[in-house]
Design goal:
Layout (H helix, E strand, L loop, with lengths): L1 H23 E9 L7 E10 L5 E8 L2 E12 L2 E6 L3 E3 L4 E4 L4 E8 L8 E8 L4 E9 L5 H4 L23 H6 L8 H37 L4 H48 L10 H11 L6 H7 L7 H37 L4 H32 L2 H14 L3
Parallel strand pairs: 1-10
Antiparallel strand pairs: 1-2, 2-7, 2-8, 3-6, 3-9, 4-5, 4-8, 9-10
């Protein structure tokens, strides 16, 4: 009987300890970012509350959806956003630590399966007090958490930017701004549209600036020799923000339609088709080709140095032959991806103007983003291939010449 009592007492202590640990920490608002096909890294965000009077540190995370899980943070260094692994994340006594975009987060590296919006991912956290906290996080597109992800530091990006580079959707409000008389709107409708522009306009501009900032960062990271894993993360950021823009424009169109009615909205679409829906068809004119390349490729094109300034690199015959062979092999592949992006963006604009279903818009958007990922990854493969052909001094010279002659 005494042994039985001891066993019961021991079990009770263990259960009580477990409950105590569970009460020490609470998890709120967890979610995992959906990533397009081809990206093998995602992020998880959440809030961790410490319900004790003693500081606790998160020291480890695991998940069956990834082969490796790390704790990371984003920091600004030399004017550039940089991601780095950390050993622990502090949750202050009786406080809350938010793991959020542009701050602390959990990196899911080497995804073991495709994750899509609505899926549930199981993650377990381990803390320095010995407790473990499992939780389930829903997979969401960043567009579902748009307000959270849009709050990024955008001070360093110029307000002057080519929004056609950033927005493949029809900008129907251009008609309201430039030729409102064609819509025969009532005073009340005009006021509601103006109020909507005042509310949504700054959010869309913030997204434009965020994409521009990320594209600058991925360019700098590529030139600094950052590995593919870092490039993939920046590419993921760019893709998710671009999807935010598409989603924001789709929501804007729905809002406008609700204000002016289906018939007037159809009139607006028809006016846009005739006057504003300029297809992105780039000619062989040098200026237009540069514009097209800027539109589809935010990465450094180091082959420009080889093609135009090879005399400054002191290439030997074997190096020159290898570089030419690689260029001849890769240029058609990259050109095909560029054309695919332009074609799909034209189709997306046409679909939006013809009231295509959200599923169709999503399908076209995913196609655009998959090709954009291929372009960004392809440029890193080209960079690394070139580095393997050249000696260190020559490659350093390529980077220097590119910065001096082809950036900006």
């Amino acid at each position: 009987m005494k042994n039985f009592i001891k066993i019961v007492f021991t079990i009770t202590l263990l259960l009580t300890a477990g409950l105590s640990f569970a009460k020490d920490i609470s998890i709120d608002n967890p979610y995992v970012r959906e990533v397009p096909p081809g990206i093998k890294t995602s992020l998880s965000f959440l809030s961790i509350s410490n319900n004790t009077g003693k500081e606790i540190a998160l020291i480890k995370a695991t998940s069956d959806v990834a082969s490796n899980v790390e704790l990371h943070e984003h920091v600004h260094k030399d004017g550039m956003m940089e991601m780095r692994q950390v050993e622990k994340i502090i949750i202050p006594a009786n406080g809350v630590t938010h793991l959020k975009p542009s701050g602390y987060h959990i990196m899911l590296i080497g995804l073991t399966r495709k994750i899509k919006s609505g899926d549930i991912v199981e993650i377990e956290l381990e803390f320095d007090n010995g407790s473990k906290q499992p939780f389930k996080a829903e997979v969401k597109r960043v567009i579902d958490g748009m307000n959270m992800d849009a709050k990024k530091d955008t001070k360093k990006v110029s307000m002057k930017m080519d929004t056609s580079h950033l927005n493949p959707m029809p900008n129907l409000m251009a008609i309201f701004k430039k030729t409102p008389e064609k819509l025969n709107l009532t005073t009340d409708q005009t006021k509601k549209l103006k109020d909507g522009m005042a509310e949504r306009g700054p959010k869309i501009k913030d997204l434009f600036k965020t994409v521009s900032r990320y594209e600058k960062e991925i360019m700098e990271a590529a030139l600094a020799g950052k590995p593919l894993s870092d490039i993939d993360q920046l590419a993921n950021n760019i893709i998710q923000e671009r999807l935010n823009i598409i989603n924001g424009k789709a929501k804007c169109a729905e809002s406008v339609k609700s204000v002016i009615g289906a018939k007037t909205f159809a009139d607006m679409q028809n006016i846009y088709k005739k006057s504003y829906a300029k297809q992105r068809q780039y000619s062989e004119d040098a200026k237009e080709k540069v514009a097209m390349l800027k539109h589809v490729n935010p990465m450094p094109n180091l082959m420009m140095v080889v093609k135009k300034m090879s005399d400054k690199l002191n290439l030997n015959e074997k190096q020159a032959e290898k570089l030419k062979h690689w260029r001849d092999e890769r240029e058609p592949v990259m050109a095909k991806q560029y054309k695919a992006i332009i074609k799909l963006e034209n189709e997306l604009q046409t679909a939006a103007l013809n009231n295509a279903s959200p599923a169709k818009l999503s399908e076209l958007s995913d196609g655009i983003m998959q090709n954009r990922i291929k372009v960004m990854r392809g440029k890193i493969f080209c960079r690394d291939k070139m580095q393997s052909i050249l000696n260190p001094e020559q490659f350093e010279k390529v980077i220097k010449l590119y910065k001096e002659n082809f950036m900006g």
